[in-house]
Design a protein that fits this description.
heterodimer; A: 300 residues; mainly alpha; ABC transporter involved in vitamin B12 uptake, BtuC; two-stranded antiparallel sheet; 11 helices; 2 strands; 1% strand; globular; B: 235 residues; alpha/beta; Rossmann fold; six-stranded mixed β-sheet; four-stranded antiparallel β-sheet; 10 strands; 39% helix; 27% strand; binds adenosine-5'-triphosphate; binds magnesium ion
């Protein structure tokens, strides 16, 4: 039983990280029907930004807590800037082009960012410093999950809550939903649709960066390729939940995280990565629009 | 107030508007009638900047707007109820109305306008928390008009507001169009298939064929015009 609970929490950790990435996929897809293949790279860049900042600040002997907070904030801003720029350069000019062109542009952006980090940082795994000391109050449950796991759960929860509030109740959030539902009509009520799309990329990139920093602290090493695998899996999670749906992205991520955790824990860890695709295929056979996706005539 | 001069609009290589001239003065109700595919909706989309003209000029109160972004055009007070209503399907009735007043900051007045449209169409008040996409066609049309009114437009463009509605609802909607024209001095540019109704509601009318304006006159004269009666009134 204890093993089961342990796997449960390790699945929750994975799922939370996927969710932070999947949110960006699903928001961008919802608003411009583009699968932003370079989204995983934004997550990777977030992790690298944090690595560089921690390196510099550690050299100057700053306190650990300050280092990790500053690193996270800068990673968020830097990734958001990347997301914004990428949309401007790679997607905006293709806004009215066939979707395949935009998809190819997305793959190009992904390869570009991966290789750029590869050249700048080598292909080796680089150690990410462990700056977060264990929380004493977690001692009683430390056999189930660690401090970084705990931070991952709480941060993800807070991000979800903020995002839900933003989308449901704020002016920008309503404009985002309106733009997703009918872009031309959104223009006709005076929404600056280009601005809303930029904001969507910025928010999605920021949450991915948070995921990047958290996973770097949790695993303790990163390389240029982490965004690719995590990106694909988060994409699977978004499709699983119903692409375009925010609760769907979270649910899909958790389902994927738990499936992977239990599969590797009870069956075999060799096929861990295959697992994601198998459940994707199974779910899509029975529910083509995903777990919480909207099927039917309405364009989402 | 609004002036189109030599407006030519294309969809890719297809030319939809072949140089049209239209002039609308403050306070008027103007109608544009024509067969399917004549270019009526395209005219409205060109005015709003969704499908900007490739050549020619559109000026609003003397200021060229054909290069402006759609949201800036809305800001000037030009508002459209497009063909097919285009309600945001997953926003509630109230949220749809909120979107209408998206650019306004005068909270108190927005509240007053909201109460006003909800008294115009009490059914919308009843359905306030229902998703827009679940309303009936007629209710959606009422919502679409109300959403446009929430912007407090100075010029309201209406694309076939009578489409698919029961005669009673059509009459109600036309009564409201006249009412906002008289009470709020909103200038109205009305595109209609139902030429009979449109020509009776409007002061002046334009007839469009194949991307060109072929007739422009007072509606009393158009109603008496033999060619118009044959082609559009079916008499
Ligand atoms: N998005 C588009 N892409 C290509 N051609 C278009 C597009 N929209 C309209 N057209 C063409 O432009 C011409 C004018 O269309 P428009 O919609 O303005 O006609 P309309 O007068 O509003 O007709 P209706 O009364 O049927 O609504 C038509 O020939 C139509 O096929
Ligand atoms: Mg039309």
């Amino acid at each position: 039983m204890e093993y089961f609970i342990e796997l449960f929490f390790s699945g929750l950790t994975r799922g939370s990280i996927y969710a932070l990435i999947a949110l960006g996929y699903t928001m961008v897809y919802g608003i411009i029907q583009l699968i932003n293949f370079a989204h995983g790279e934004i997550y990777m860049i977030g992790a690298f930004t944090a690595l560089i900042v921690t390196g510099v600040l550690t050299y100057y002997g700053w306190p650990h807590l300050a280092i990790i907070l500053i690193a996270a904030v800068l990673a968020i801003f830097y990734s958001a800037a990347y997301g914004w720029t990428m949309e401007r350069i790679a997607y905006k000019p293709l806004r009215d082009a066939p979707r395949l062109s935009a998809l190819i542009s997305a793959i190009g952006a992904s390869l570009f960012l991966q290789n750029y980090v590869l050249l700048a940082q080598t292909s080796d795994f680089l150690p990410f410093p462990s700056l977060i000391s264990d929380f004493a109050f977690l001692d009683p449950v430390s056999n189930l999950f660690g401090t970084t796991d705990f931070l991952i759960y709480t941060t993800t929860g807070v991000v979800m809550a903020l995002l839900t509030f933003l989308i449901k109740f704020t002016r920008v959030g309503k404009a985002m939903r309106a733009t997703a539902q009918d872009r031309h009509m959104a223009m006709l009520v005076g929404i600056d649709v280009n601005r809303i799309i930029s904001i969507t990329f910025i928010i999605g990139s920021a949450t991915a960066a948070i995921g990047g920093v958290l996973i770097a602290s949790h695993v303790g090493q990163i390389n240029f390729f982490i965004g690719f695998i995590a990106g694909i899996k988060a994409f699977v999670a978004a499709v699983l939940g119903g692409i375009g749906s925010l609760p769907g992205a979270v649910l899909g991520s958790l389902v994927l995280g738990w499936t992977e955790a239990f599969f590797t824990g009870y069956v075999s860890s060799d096929y861990e990565d295959v697992c994601a695709f198998v459940i994707l295929v199974i779910i899509l056979i029975f529910r083509p629009s995903g777990l919480l996706g909207r099927s039917g005539v309405q364009k989402v | 107030m609004l002036k189109l001069a030599g407006v030519k609009t294309y969809y890719g290589n297809i030319q939809a508007l072949k140089g049209i001239d239209i002039e609308i003065s403050q306070g008027e109700i103007i109608t544009l009638i024509g067969a399917n595919g004549a270019g009526k909706s395209t005219t409205l989309m060109s005015i709003c900047g969704i499908v900007p003209p490739r050549s020619g000029s559109i000026t609003f109160e003397g200021r060229p707007i054909h290069d402006m972004k759609p949201n800036d055009i809305v800001r000037l007070g030009i508002c459209q109820v497009p063909e097919g209503r285009r309600i945001f399907p997953f926003l509630t009735v109230i949220e749809n109305l909120d979107m209408g007043s998206f650019l306004r900051n005068d909270k108190a007045d927005v509240k007053r306008d909201l109460d006003y449209v909800l008294t115009l169409f009490p059914i919308l008040a009843e359905r306030r928390n229902q998703a827009g996409g679940t309303l009936s066609g007629g209710e959606q049309q009422m919502l679409a008009i109300s959403r446009a009114l929430m912007a407090r437009p100075r010029l309201l463009l209406l694309d076939e507001p009578s489409l698919g509605l029961a005669p009673l609802v059509v009459r109600q909607i036309f009564a409201i169009i006249r009412k906002i024209n008289q009470e709020q001095k909103t200038t109205i540019f009305l595109v209609e298939q139902n030429a009979n109704l449109a020509l009776k509601a409007a002061h002046r009318g334009y007839v469009m064929e194949n991307g060109r304006i072929t007739l422009a006159d007072l509606t009393v004269n158009l109603l008496a015009n033999e060619a118009v009666r044959k082609a559009y009134l079916g008499i």
